[in-house]
Amino acid sequence: MSAGSVAVVVTEEIGVPSWDLYELSIPCTVFGKPQPDLADPWYDLRLCGTGERGGADGPAGAAGLALRTPYGLDDLAGADTVIVPSVPDPCVEEGAPLPPGLTEALRRAHDAGARMVSLCTGAFALAEAGLLDGRRATAHWMHTAQLAERYPKVRVDDSVLYVDDGDVLTSAGLTAGLDLCLHLVRRDLGAYVANQLARRMVVPAHRPGGQAQFIDLSVPAADDQGLAPVLAWARAHLDRPLTVEDLAERAALSPRTFYRRLQAATGTTPLQWLLDQRLARAQSLLESTDLPVEKIGELSGLGTANNLRHHFLKRVGVSPSDYRRAFPRTAPDIPLAG
């Protein structure tokens, strides 16, 4: 087993926003700090700037840092692993161009045999380079819809912490990048080394479930003011056996029209919307109360504890008990609907 070299892309000529430093620091911490008692030699870490040999001449702006790096984009092709921690926000939110030369440098690195990795919004760079075409990939759940829309050839999965597709790997945002980096260590140096490294970083070696457990299920994709009152009423009465016909009647619409308008507003069917609201209700109750699972199933409208567990595992990716442990009670009891 060999650690090899890791090249991390740093978009330094436009400044690294302070909120992106977390993703940048993850590979630096995992691969940059020698661990001679675990593996010797450890990884050879290289920070590769997108300017000319680390030419960070422009200002970073009020919320960022300008960085100079000893390596440039040409050095990506010589690395065993290439990691793109993130891309600038305008590239994600507004479709602004990526730093000049980055996509071509990523293609050359891949053609040279490098293992390609993205953390969080770094997936947009791999997608722009065509390296995710036909592959399953992920990113932070807040950006996966944009990723899927902009790059339809990518099979985007917003439910997982990371995707290992062999020579191309992608992760969700923030701490999921740490999960993926530890996975790379596990692949390269074995479970023992990865587990010991995780202990030193005071993090789990492997977290249960995926990022689906962090998604806010209650947020609609769009808004329809005409439906707002009936949807608010439905959220307040989730413990009742609601049907599409019930909601349509309350909205003074035919079931077919209600179905069409709700799907346009939320991007999902009425039954799926109801299920998502019930699961969101169950999440809130698990986070904010000490109620038993049986009672939570009843109050959320999911019925029995077994039915709650079934849907929770399928949609959220972890059991209600695991979810409660991951999100311990920190808020006062929320009002119970009825």
TrEMBL record:
It comes from the Bacteria. SMART domains: HTH_ARAC. Keywords: DNA-binding, Transcription, Transcription regulation. GO terms for molecular function: DNA-binding transcription factor activity; sequence-specific DNA binding. Gene3D superfamilies: 3.40.50.880, Homeodomain-like. CDD domains: GATase1_AraC_1. This is Helix-turn-helix domain-containing protein. It comes from Streptomyces rimosus subsp. rimosus (strain ATCC 10970 / DSM 40260 / JCM 4667 / NRRL 2234). The lineage of its organism: Bacteria, Bacillati, Actinomycetota, Actinomycetes, Kitasatosporales.
